[in-house]
Structures are given as C-alpha cells and as structure tokens.
Design goal:
Layout: H1 4-17, E1 25-31, E2 34-40, H2 46-50, H3 55-71, E3 74-80
Parallel strand pairs: 2-3
Antiparallel strand pairs: 1-2
Helix pairs in contact: 1-3
Length: about 80
C-alpha cells in the first residue's frame, strides 16, 4: 500500500535517534495523494527528534518528502506531543 515505505522510513530514523526506541509510535493517514505521517516519541526523547531550532525534524521531513516524490506522492510529518 502507498505510504508503507514512508512510514517505515520515519520509524527507522526515529528509532535510531532516541534512547527509548520501543516508545516510537508512527501512524499513517492518506488524504488523496498526500500521506500524513504522525510521529510520537517518549517525552525525554522529544529534544533528540526535534533538535536545535528544529534542524533534526526538518531533516527528517526533507528525507520524507524526497522518498514520497520517488513514489509519486506527497508527504507531511507531524511530531505529536507525548501523552
């Protein structure tokens, strides 16, 4: 299904960055040709995923957009506050 590779990409990158990889939760929603990916990590790992001035988050978004373009779709990444 379209977007499964994108979801896996975000999950892999996030798990590689955080101290608690079992707390990484990635959900995918499709709206037309756009894939919406939501990433949630443990509260202690939010800084690692966002980075200084959002640099890490923007790098993940760039990777996601390039991967989506290769699949012929568009993708957006939202980083959700931990519960």
């Amino acid at each position: 299904m379209k977007g499964d590779n994108l979801q896996g990409l975000v999950e892999f990158v996030a798990q590689s960055l955080v101290d608690q990889p079992t707390e990484v939760d990635v959900n995918k929603y499709t709206r037309g040709s756009t894939v919406q990916i939501e990433l949630q990590v443990a509260r202690e790992d939010m800084g690692r995923v966002i980075g200084k001035s959002g640099r890490v988050a923007n790098a993940i978004r760039t990777l996601l957009k390039v991967a989506a373009a290769r699949e012929g779709s568009q993708a957006n990444l939202d980083i959700i506050e931990p519960r």
